[in-house]
């Protein structure tokens, strides 16, 4: 994700930005992968460049001036679970390259770069507009947990108490779900994808396996042994699906790629397939797990619980609606 060529020519006069004014030592400080920033007062004019950070801002009652469009054809890049909180706000949608001119024109007092994938060069340029908040040191680009993202943005906008309440409420929901299903504890689960003949599995720091872990599941040991890309996915050999033959198999974008999944030769060798323990997801539920935010996870939790119950009831004949609808049922 690169800034526009015009923006990168700022030093040559294509873009003139006055350095942001900061009151040293008078505000809240944040250490991050590119250094440190200080906010003299809670941010109120926020540009959200992370793929999912706008969800958190909306949950905290702050409508972003601009939103980084990830994917999905929804108004202002805001998915259904967050739309009610948008109100009458009409944020600028930033897609493709980030335009520093656009960001500067909005006069933000904070730019959220957590989960944006921006480079140090991009960070340095945007920092001439306003403080840029990146992920914590030692955290990969897309490895910030939903708890940390909520807590961090809560501090930045002066809503610490609200952020803490939102986190406690969602953690309570996960806890209550685990308590209802002690049989899930310690069973294996994977979130996998298939596209253009390539099959992959989400790993470690990704939001999707984190969701499964918070329900008591664990990843198969063989998944941890696969080479990981950026800490959040690994490619599975087309000749050996044994690493992903878990007790529960979640096909991300399963409905969109159902025909491709059905055509996979090695899927037929998976016990999970024969025993009806696969759940192919539709677009909105795929999005909810992929965003993995304080707003999307309650939706995912509510929708996923009954599907997991059906998939793991021990009877291959039990219909799992998404699998039946896509023709992927055994």
Describe the overall structure:
The chain has two domains: 28-158, Rossmann fold (3-Layer(aba) Sandwich), CATH 3.40.50; 186-326, Rossmann fold. It is built from 13 helices and 13 strands. The protein has helices at residues 5-8, 53-59, 100-105, 120-126, 146-156, 160-180, 207-213, 221-224, 258-262, 271-274, 283-291, 296-311, 321-326; strands at residues 28-32, 35-39, 46-48, 66-68, 92-94, 110-112, 132-133, 189-195, 198-202, 228-229, 233-236, 248-251, 278-280. The strands form three sheets. The chain has a six-stranded mixed sheet with strand order 10-11-9-8-12-13. A five-stranded parallel sheet has the order 5-4-3-6-7, with helices on one face. The chain has a two-stranded antiparallel sheet with strand order 1-2. Helix 5 (146-156) runs antiparallel to helix 6 (160-180) and helix 6 (160-180) packs parallel to helix 12 (296-311).
């Amino acid at each position: 994700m690169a800034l526009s060529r015009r923006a990168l020519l700022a030093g040559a006069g294509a873009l003139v930005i006055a350095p942001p004014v900061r009151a040293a030592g008078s505000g809240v400080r944040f250490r991050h992968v590119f250094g440190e920033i200080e906010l003299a007062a809670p941010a109120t004019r926020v540009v959200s460049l992370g793929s999912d950070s706008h969800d958190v801002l909306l949950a905290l009652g702050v409508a972003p001036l601009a939103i980084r469009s990830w994917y999905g054809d929804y108004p202002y890049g805001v998915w259904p679970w967050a739309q009610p909180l948008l109100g009458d706000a009409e944020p600028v949608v930033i897609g493709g390259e980030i335009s520093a001119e656009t960001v500067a024109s909005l006069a933000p007092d904070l730019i959220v770069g957590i989960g944006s994938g921006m480079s140090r060069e991009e960070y340095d340029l945007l920092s001439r507009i306003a403080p840029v908040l990146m992920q914590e040191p030692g955290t990969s680009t897309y490895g910030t947990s939903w708890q940390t993202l909520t807590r961090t943005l809560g501090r930045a906008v002066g809503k610490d108490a609200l952020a803490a309440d939102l986190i406690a409420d969602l953690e309570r929901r996960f806890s209550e779900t685990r308590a209802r299903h002690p049989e899930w504890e310690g069973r294996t689960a994977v979130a996998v994808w298939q596209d253009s003949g390539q099959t992959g599995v989400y790993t470690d720091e990704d939001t999707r396996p984190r969701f499964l872990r918070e329900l008591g599941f664990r990843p198969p040991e063989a998944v941890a042994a696969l080479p990981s890309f950026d800490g959040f996915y690994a490619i599975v050999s087309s000749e050996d699906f044994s690493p992903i033959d878990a007790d529960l198999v979640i096909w991300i974008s399963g409905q969109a790629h159902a025909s491709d999944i059905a055509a996979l030769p090695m899927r037929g060798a998976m016990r999970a397939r024969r025993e009806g323990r696969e759940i192919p997801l539709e677009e909105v539920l795929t999005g909810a797990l992929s965003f993995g935010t304080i707003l999307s996870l309650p939706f995912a939790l509510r929708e996923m619980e009954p599907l997991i119950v059906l998939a793991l009831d021990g009877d291959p004949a039990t219909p799992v609606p998404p699998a039946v609808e896509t023709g992927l049922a055994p």
